[in-house]
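Need the bound structure for NAP, inputs here:
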Amino acid sequence: MDKRVAVVTGASAGIGAATATALAGAGFEVVLGARRLDRLRRVADSVGGRALELDVTSQESVDAFSAALGRVDVLVNNAGGALGLDRVDEADLDRWRWMFEANVLGTLRMTKALLPALLESGDGHVVTITSIAAVEVYDGGAGYTAAKHAQSALHRTLRGELLGEPVRFTEVLPGMVETEFSLTRFDGDTARAEAVYQGIDPLTAADVAEVVAFAVTRPAHVNLDQIVMKPRAQASATRAHREK
Ligand code: NAP
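Answer from helper R.:
Posting the output first, comments after.
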């Protein structure tokens, strides 16, 4: 039998890159998508995967990406992130628009495009990386938490709409993971990004990837619906124990 194929969005860095690595290790043929093709190729080469340029905020890009695929068994909707930490009364509409485009509509575009192939595989699996921001709110976080709540609602709706079809749906909701996430959120401000992880042992991208690999390697009748994972020292989005 041919190898099962896993598609990972946002695979040029962080959780996506680690997930591509873990899935290749678990025996999948991996297709990696992201905008920065040079970085994407480096990750793809290291795992023997295939790098294809992808911008999930563009329908044209998603169409071209999907047209280049054949068999698809697993889709990991990982591309996304946060921009800024602005209060609602100071909200920047363009930043909100990007967060909704990347996290919510990106997941919608990719899932819609690949569902026929996932069903055709006879045992499809959609994993969506949302966040604890999909179940919590915090001051300054509304743009991101609203987008993650919406992305989660979209993902969980599919679980019901496709009941009876050969496809599984797993939502992974991580807390604090040390990646380039905070650097992007704070427009490249390294000191501000590093402060997020100070005094705490955060999750690594590999920790999340291992959980994704576990979920997609269960037998076909087992659906892990939601997996919330946080560092031991983090109780919620706003409460963490930090060593001095
Ligand atoms: P990261 O290191 O900043 O990686 C983000 C990835 O998404 C990059 O590979 C980036 O690649 C890709 N991406 C961004 N916009 C894209 C677009 N329009 N089209 C395609 N790819 C795009 O952050 P991360 O922590 O790994 O984040 C991955 C996911 O986990 C996100 O959905 C994030 O919200 C979620 N998450 C993160 C944390 C955390 O604490 N880090 C916690 C919970 C959930 P290019 O720039 O090359 O396109």
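Comments: The helical segments are 14-25, 37-47, 59-67, 93-120, 142-161, 181-185, 190-196, 205-216. The beta strands are 5-9, 29-34, 50-53, 74-77, 124-129, 167-174, 226-229, 234-236, 239-240.
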